[in-house]
Amino acid sequence: MVKKISLILAMALLFPVSPGIAGEAVLDSGNTAWMIVATALVMVMTPAGLALFYGGMSRYKNLLNTVAMTFVSYCLGSVIWVMWGYTMAFGTDVGGIIGGLDHLFLNGIGVNDLSGTIPTFVFVLFQMTFAGITVALVLGAIVDRMKFSAWIVFAVLWLTFIYAPICHWAWGGGWMARMGALDFAGGNVVHINAGVAGLVLCLLLGKRKGYGREAMFPSSIALTALGAALLWFGWFGFNAGSQLAADGISASAFLVTNTSAAMGALSWMFAEWIFSKKPTLLGLASGIVAGLVSITPAAGFVNLFGSIVIGCVAGVLGYYCVSVLKHKMGYDDSLDAFGVHGMCGLWGALATGLLADPSINALGTGLFFGNPRQLWIQILSILGTASYTCVGTLGVAWVTKMITGGLRVEEEEEIKGLDSSIHGERAFEIEG
């Protein structure tokens, strides 16, 4: 017995505290495997899901141009993120506004470095997929009429000066995070940001030729529906992956994401059925996305009942913005980037302040669970995001115009179609 006690004391002296007990980060292979999968799921959302969703809603003569703009958005996001975007978003905080340049070109990050319990390289890639899809969402407001060259310049500048700072505010230790704003997977960073930018850009470009006077039919609603299904699939990585761990909160985020998407589809369908007399497949697909957008900021904070409420309101709100508000206001948001992403993202951010359940996540307590201050914080975060995005996008668009000589294609190119006039290709062979 004495020998056993002596051995234990000797081991305690030689190894006083294990790395795990000391709080040193230790790689978790389960979390790492999940985050690699989640990253791949989010990657699928842009060049596959969003490209098909937006491409199918575009007119047949602009389908390939829409897909090409989506592809190039993701490619630009991928390169910019690892060169300077990541460090601007997640580098050492500078005044709560922007990250420092200590990780320029991922400098100082090695293969064994960890962010929490996963490799930092995996975290970098996961966040990169968010940057890629956010800028791609903006183009939904301006398809059919923006120069491809202007879009490339705009995307580079917008990712650098708009997306990266707002990402830092919410997720990189900036003022929004310090204030206690809740944005689990991108209500402010992704959807309000992209939606407001899309509205600003479509107002600057003006309406499409013939808008309001001639029918502008989608090229393929079947492609849009397939795109919505891929977005739904990828969104599980988008939301559940934002926990950065394979745990109960991640599982809850997975559950409420699916529920909100389904409720969004159903509520949009019934609203359309009641007011337009026909339940369309395009409405169902749009309702899915509206439900997904709205649950994004709340996914890690709300319970099942909260997700049902969020999805139900999202479908009706999305339908109203697309079918009524846009026409009353008179703006030409081609594929409803503002109506679906901007407005439903706003609703999701507010709903988080109302419905955040501390039994799901101790980091969030909403108004209906005894914390009215959280709703006010959410409102401030929305105002901060929308204001900066609005002014910043105006500046980025002005610089883009100076560099490229204009934002909009020539009238002849627009009439002919951008697939042919810009890319020299056709999506469909049309007889006759």
Structural commentary:
The protein has 432 residues and is mainly alpha-helical. It has one domain: Ammonium transporter fold (Orthogonal Bundle), CATH 1.10.3430. The protein is built from 15 helices and 4 strands. The protein has helices at residues 2-14, 29-57, 63-90, 120-138, 148-171, 175-179, 187-205, 221-240, 248-276, 281-295, 304-329, 337-355, 372-404, 411-416, 418-423, and strands spanning 93-94, 98-99, 114-115, 118-119. It has a two-stranded antiparallel ribbon. The chain has a two-stranded antiparallel ribbon with strand order 3-4. Strand 1 and strand 2 form a beta hairpin. Helix 3 crosses helix 4. It is globular and about 60 Å long. The model is unreliable at 1-22 (pLDDT under 50).
What structural class do you assign from the helix and strand content? mainly alpha
Could you name the CATH homologous superfamily? Ammonium transporter AmtB like domains
What is the gyration radius calculated from CA atoms? 23 Å
Put simply, the count of helices is 15
Number of domains: 1
Low-confidence stretches: 1-22
Q: Please give the share of residues in helix.
A: 55-70%
CATH architecture: Orthogonal Bundle
Order of secondary-structure elements: HHHEEEEHHHHHHHHHHHH
How large is the share of residues in beta strands?
A: under 5%
